[in-house]
DNA sequence: CTGTTAGCGCTTTCAA
DNA sequence: TTGAAAGCGCTAACAG
């Protein structure tokens, strides 16, 4: 060892196989080796124009030889920027992605990330605590799904001074938020079934905390308001004999699970409104396996219009919502905040549309 | 303003609507207000046991009043931990998630994240540069997909001293890696078609850089070795008349796009081997739209066995690979490294299995 | 049980 | 064109 620089030493032994977690080479090592100040090294990397090209060259050269990479954490501490946005989810990551809806939403968010040079952090509860995860996240802002505006998480976000945008939440005016017309979507889907003559109808709904319709909030509340409106039009209500509400996990697996409970209802439903295509697809698949014909023996209408919904058998009748747009708009709103740009309207409501395919048919027809 | 503490001032004006990016309240503000040292404040949050409960109380109380949240970046700089792992993808996030394969993989990784209290950062190229993204990522380690071991990204990872695990790569012994038996999967799927009597077969393959089979590497190479083996068994080769290779995007959209090119081949193929279910599903869907019956007029075999593959019409014949396990095992390997745990074997090869469903049938039968 | 002190590795005025 | 020095906000020896 001729050199007294630990930096160089680690470079010499930088054989991939031998590689040890030795003294990490820092900006100081480079400065010393190149015979310049830390400032110069920093400039060489971030504003090469402010140095003579020779100096820049020399510094970059030394850096390359010693295998130097600036520490992004230290950089972040100075700049207060992480170049990442987060998406906070109240459940496990695996659960979240078990519904293709979430993948498509993330895809929409991802489009904006790429445009803006951001990475996307998926933030699930940390050892059971979503709050802890929110405190710890190294992000410049985030999108919040599946939570209400009064959730503690939102308080922490505000406390941390992190810009955020909510999706599918009843947020107050000053909170940025992207929603869809849940009322209309729900109303139309049930109306569709009622007009086809169905009167024994089960609603396959997300899991809520309480399980009681009266306490539903947010998306769930709006959709049930829509169902009520449709029922009322037909002279029915949620309490009518023949109308049932079953909660299940919002995934294909949830649909599979709820199928049996569905079939034990009295009277047995001739149609199902699912609050998500994933649930609907699970129900249809299970019906198949049990030899029950959809739509002849059971009509099923979904909600979302996933990419695969038109490809399952039978192609799914459903309420289309612009999932990718939802993610994209939310991310745009968020990045406006992060970048300090002004955004005109911070409350967005996207339209929905009933798409009639083959999974529903006239009762007895 | 009676108080001279800017911290308190910001607390007083902490009305959500009025909220400004004023002086962020730091550990110093809390220490001052509570009449203790920074150390004490730090302890109150991280090792409350080392303080008298009164002191802890008081500190936490002040913190609450002033709306203090520890700065996770500063914390990371000390601890050198971020509590996040990354998954590096060479394309846009939206592209990645357009293939359900990726969602399922991420789901597998996510299971481990939840167990270990980690968030998951999806890292796409930053303004076109995956290298820049790799330099900037605030992570403790990462999983690398769709890249070869000699990629620059891997060099940077090593330079940054970040543990990493590759998926689907021809990695040297000392690089942790999770693969499947691509050769066998490919061989069996094509063999299946050949045994059904098909001789005019198109391969619908991922996009490679070169487009030339001879230059394929990694997964692509192994699979084509498998195809060669199957063909040889039937006295054919990749050059035989009737055998074609078309590249397309690895997504449903890719399958839709490749359909037309497929139908223009001479002789027109009676069967297709797709390198991914997403592609297969896109092809089948388009065939439907064009009134072509699958499998009667065109047999299609996929690769992956996605959750939806059994639910499309007709249910897809495909090669099952344990996607979630792949993600889980990779994440386990990675976290062993991150936590400094020893892992016995750092090269894992998962098995595959041909699953015959309804999208293939005997030629002319 | 509590405080002093020295960093973590980088950015960024400000002065030379 | 370059460098000195003061932080960024927190953790963790170490000393008392």
Write a structural description.
Two copies of one chain form a homodimer. Chain A has 365 residues and is α/β, with parallel strands linked by helices. Chain A has a six-stranded parallel β-sheet, with helices on both faces. Chain A has a six-stranded mixed β-sheet with strand order 7-6-8-9-10-12, sandwiched between helices. Chain A has 14 helices and twelve strands. In chain A, helix 12 packs across helix 13. The radius of gyration of chain A is 27 Å and the shape is elongated. The termini of chain A are far apart. Chain A folds into three domains: 58 residues, lambda repressor-like DNA-binding domains (434 Repressor (Amino-terminal Domain), Orthogonal Bundle), CATH 1.10.260.40; 124 residues, Response regulator (Rossmann fold); 139 residues, Response regulator (Rossmann fold), CATH 3.40.50.2300. The longest helix of chain A has 17 residues. At the A-B interface, helix 5, helix 6, helix 7, strand 2 and helix 8 of A face helix 5, helix 6, helix 7, strand 2 and helix 8 of B. Chain A binds a DNA duplex (16 and 16 nucleotides) through helix 3 and helix 5.
């Amino acid at each position: 060892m001729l050199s007294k620089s630990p930096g160089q030493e680690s470079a010499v032994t930088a054989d991939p196989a031998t590689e040890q977690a030795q003294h990490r080479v820092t900006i100081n090592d480079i400065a010393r080796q190149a015979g310049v100040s830390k400032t110069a090294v920093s400039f060489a990397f971030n504003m090469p124009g402010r140095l003579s090209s020779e100096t820049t060259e020399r510094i970059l050269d030394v850096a390359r030889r010693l295998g130097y990479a600036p520490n992004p954490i230290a950089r972040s501490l100075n700049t207060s920027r992480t170049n990442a946005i987060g998406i906070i989810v109240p459940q496990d990551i695996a659960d979240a992605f078990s519904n293709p809806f979430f993948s498509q939403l993330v895809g929409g968010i991802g489009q904006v990330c790429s445009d803006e040079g951001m990475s996307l952090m998926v933030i699930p509860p940390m050892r059971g605590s979503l709050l802890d995860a929110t405190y710890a996240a190294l992000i410049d802002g985030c999108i919040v799904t599946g939570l209400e505006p009064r959730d503690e998480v939102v308080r922490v976000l505000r406390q941390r001074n992190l810009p955020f945008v909510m999706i599918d939440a009843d947020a107050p005016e000053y909170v940025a938020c992207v929603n869809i017309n849940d009322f209309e979507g729900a109303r139309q889907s049930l109306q569709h079934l009622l007009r086809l003559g169905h009167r024994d109808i089960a609603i396959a709904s997300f899991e809520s905390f309480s399980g009681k319709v009266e306490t539903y909030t947010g998306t769930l509340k709006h959709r049930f308001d829509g169902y009520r409106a449709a029922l009322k039009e037909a002279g029915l209500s949620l309490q009518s004999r023949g109308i049932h509400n079953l909660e299940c996990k919002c995934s294909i697996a949830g649909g599979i699970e709820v199928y049996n409970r569905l079939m034990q209802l009295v009277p047995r439903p001739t149609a199902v409104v699912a609050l998500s295509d994933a649930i609907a697809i699970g129900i249809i698949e299970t019906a198949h396996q049990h030899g029950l014909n959809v739509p002849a023996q059971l009509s099923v209408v979904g909600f979302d219009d996933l990419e695969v919904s038109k490809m399952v058998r039978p192609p799914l009748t459903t309420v289309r919502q612009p999932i990718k747009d939802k993610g994209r708009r939310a991310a745009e709103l968020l990045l406006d905040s992060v970048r300090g740009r002004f955004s005109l309207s911070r409350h967005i409501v996207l339209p929905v549309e009933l798409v009639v395919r083959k999974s529903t048919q006239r009762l007895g027809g």
